[in-house]
Amino acid sequence: MKKLIPLATLIFIIFVIPSVYAEPSLDVKITPEPEFNQLWAYETYDINITINEFNISETDYSELSENEYSFGYDTEIDVNRYGKYKYGGRSAGYTIIIPQIDPKVVHIDSKNNSITFNFTIDRDSYEYGLLPFEYLEIIISIKVDLNINENNSDIISTKSLKFTLIDETKVEYFEGKYRDIRDEIDTVLQASGLESFNREKYENILNEMNTTLASGNYVEAIEIWEHYNEKDRSDMINGMVTASNTEFVELEALRDVESQYNSLEEDFERLQSEYDQLENTYVALANTYNKVNQELETVKGNLSTAITAVFLTAIVFYFLGRRGARREVEVENA
After folding, report:
1. Nearest Cα residue to 228 out of 185, 197, 186
2. pLDDT tens digits for range 59-78
3. In Å, what is the CA distance from 137 to each residue of 117, 122, 212, 221, 225?
4. Most buried of 19, 143, 212, 223, CB within 10 angstroms?
5. Do residues 96 and 80 make contact, with C-beta atoms less than 8 angstroms apart?
């Protein structure tokens, strides 16, 4: 039993006390549900406002019965035009309240903690007087009071929602900007050379905007276009210039190598010519040597024949001389 008491106390602290002392809040639902915080021109929307976590016992009017108080729902719908302008490499945003457009105010008294009403956006960006690069911001401000009597009320909760107006003219404008980006980036992507240029970055930008438009997220498309217009385009140009300079330096280095190659080629041709001359001289000398050698061999053969002939002649004369001398001796002896 003693263990159950702390457990019950813990459950009371966790579940009961927060519900008693929770701050009232507003739950706002818009139908049809705006995608990407976008409201469309000429569309009618239902707005449902529900008060959550409100308990009359938590106020100073706990003695009042439900029939003695009501809720006062005040909704104000304002429209502002906003845009950006660039100067000196910078950009600044501006917001202008459209003076000729009175805010739409809806006041409803009800004893229910939930109400629904509708409103229609009856004009587009052009009819609001916006320039093509400007956008219309729709602010829905909600305040709920606890009405005690005609002269006494307390604020229960407030909430503010912001949306961007979208219409067919704006869609055509965004699609036109996409085509501008596509034409610029495609020109860069299709360019030859510039290997150091980061083509993938800008291809991703193009794909991202195409995907964003296809999904109907025109608010995101605005941001992609503005970032490209303010920064990515200049980065792309600077990147191309840097890549071009890099290739120019590499080209100059190649030209130096080419010049050295041409010089070496000229030296090679000169050495080849000298070699050819030396080879021709060698061939001529070799031919002369062979000719002289043949002549020498011929002379050597002739000389050897002559020597042999002289030697044989000498021998013949020698024997003939001896024979003649022998005859003379025989004659004398006879």
Report:
1. 185
2. 555 455 555 678 899 999 98
3. 21, 15, 20, 16, 18
4. 212
5. yes
**Rounded Cα–Cα distance for residues 297 and 300 (Å):** 5
Q: Report the CATH architecture of 20-166.
A: Sandwich (2.60)
What is the full DSSP assignment across 183-214? HHHHHHHT----TTS-HHHHHHHHHHHHHHHH
**Gap between the Cα atoms of 205 and 239, Å rounded:** 15
Give the separation between CA 199 and CA 185, rounded to whole angstroms. 9
Q: Is the pLDDT of residue 110 over 90?
A: no
User: Does the global pTM surpass 0.70?
Assistant: no
From the centroid of its chain, how far is CA 168? 30
Largest interatomic CA distance in the chain: 206
Nearest partner of 230 among 126, 93, 322, judged by Cα: 93
Give the distance from CA 44 to its chain's centroid: 40
Give the C-alpha separation, 50 to 28, whole Å: 7
